[in-house]
Amino acid sequence: MFVFSNFLYAAAHILDYALSAYMWIIIIRALISWVNPDPYNPIVRFLYAITEPVLYRVRRVLPFMGGLDLSPMIVIFVIYFLQFFLVRTLLDVAMKMR
């Protein structure tokens, strides 16, 4: 049983790191959008390609706010929720299995 416990522990930490990295990518994309970047820059294209599918789904649900895009903030709140609920739950389950 300790093998599955170690697997859950490792999965929780990897998920935590992945969510943190994605949160920083969302923040960087929001900051870059303020300066009107070159759309042909490979870094900008990468940021848009990796974040637009998630942000688009959130924008479809949110009402129109007069040009104010709150979707990055909503996604960051969801990431925080997942880190505090899902990751900690996985860690607690892993610890109780030992």
Topology readout:
Elements: H1 2-33, H2 42-61, H3 71-96
Helix pairs in contact: 1-2, 1-3, 2-3
Task: Give a quick precis of the structure.
The protein is 80% helix and 0% strand.
Pick out the low-confidence regions.
none
What is the mean predicted local confidence, pLDDT? 94
Chain oligomer state: single chain
Overall geometry comes to elongated
Task: Tell me the major beta sheet.
Answer: none
Q: How many domains, in number, for the residues? A: 1
Strand content: under 5%
SSE succession = HHH
> What is the helix content?
over 70%
Q: How many beta-strand segments? A: 0
In angstroms, what is the radius of gyration? 17 Å
Determine the N-to-C terminus distance: 7 Å
Structural class: mainly alpha
Number of helices: 3
Would you kindly provide a written description of the structure presented here, covering whatever features stand out?
This protein has 98 residues and is mainly α. The chain has one domain. It contains 3 helices and no strands. The termini are close together. 4% of the residues are buried. The mean pLDDT is 94.
